[in-house]
Amino acid sequence: MREKEACVLRVRRHSLVPGVRRLIPFGVRGLVAMILVVGSVHVFAAVRPLRFGVLPLQSPVALARLFIPLCAHLAKALHRPIVFATAPDFRRFMARAKRGRYDVVFLNPYLYRQLHGYRAVARIKGVPFIGLLIARRGAAIGPLTPQILKGRSIAFPDPDAFAATLMVKEYLRARGVIVDTEMRPVYLRSQDSVILAVARGLVDLGGTWPWSLDQEPAAIRAEVRILARTPPGPEMPIAVRDSLSPATVRALQKALTGLTGSAAGRRILRRLRIPAGFAIATPSDYAKVPRTLNPCAAPARP
Questions:
Q1: Rounded to whole angstroms, how far apart are CA atoms 127 and 214?
Q2: Cβ(131)–Cβ(230) below 8 Å
Q3: What angle do helix axes 60-78 and 263-272 make, rounded to 10 degrees?
Q4: Which of 51, 78, 157, 226 is most buried, with most CB under 10 Å away?
Q5: How many CB atoms lie within 10 A of CB 215?
Q6: Whether domain 132-229 has CATH 3.30.460.10
Q7: Domain extents for the chain?
């Protein structure tokens, strides 16, 4: 019994903060399933699909457009169906990962360090893993001091977004600003929502990172400006469950690092805004990433 390889997308309802719901047209009602037949390589119907979980950095629809081609490529290379999945928010994504719902995960370094039973096997290249502090173009924002920022609103995608939230908060903390107590933080679930809220003037400031900002339409990017960049951290990893066979892991690494070697692979990378592709990674690459951060701690005094 044979079947063609397929890449399956599962997207659940994606709710948004009420204040910006009317401006952000990517809510998904109900369960959407999209199946993409990616080739004529045959596999046994009994083979269990690999579940590829992607941290909800953006809306489910935006992630689907970005990752379905990669999913399809991996299905061909591994001769195995791939199920692409995301979640409504970081908390539920991590809960599912901790229950073993995903075989492969694409997530930030901070959340990777909180997962047990997964190991890093690849990382993106050429996309600086830094936090960006952004404001609406033309907005009167002075020096980033406690006096200037006190009481201002600032949007983040999620409390556990490493670059966009934690690294930006740490950047401001080092300058004497404790975001959670001295500013008015709001969490909008996705990077898209943060960038659009800043562009439309719904908040004074926002935290994001270069990869998500680059995904936005030119008209939206033109409405924001970068006020500050944080120091860099290790790149976004792709991790696999420890139970995945060594042969499957090697095939996955080969498929990911080989994307730059073909025209089709380079098209996938351009869509993902990762033109330099992927590199091999190991758990030791992330050993210095803290498992917990306290952005509310008082800044160190000289």
A1: 10
A2: yes
A3: 160
A4: 157
A5: 21
A6: no
A7: 2-127+234-286, 132-229
The torsion angles phi and psi of 184, rounded to 5 degrees, stand at -120, 85
DSSP assignment letter at 49: P
According to the model, what pLDDT value does residue 297 have?
54
129 contacts 109 by C-beta, under 8 angstroms: yes
The CA distances from residue 71 to 36, 68, 160, 244, 275, in Å, are 9, 5, 25, 17, 17
Query: Does CATH place domain 2-127+234-286 in 3.40.190.10?
Result: yes
H helices, E strands: number in the chain: 12, 13
Composition of the chain by helix, strand, coil, percent to 5: 35, 25, 40
Any residues with CB less than 8 A from the CB of 264 and at least 6 apart, and which? Answer: 73
**Alpha carbon distance 270, 219 (integer Å):** 20
User: Per-residue pLDDT tens for 147-197?
Assistant: 999 999 999 999 999 999 999 999 999 999 999 999 999 999 889 999 999
Cβ contacts of 180 within 8 Å, gap of 6 or more: 169, 295, 296
What's the pLDDT score for residue 58?
87
State how far Cα 169 lies from the chain centre: 18
Which residues are CB-contacts of 128 (< 8 A; sequence separation ≥ 6)?
210, 232
Which amino acid is located at 158 in the chain? Answer: D
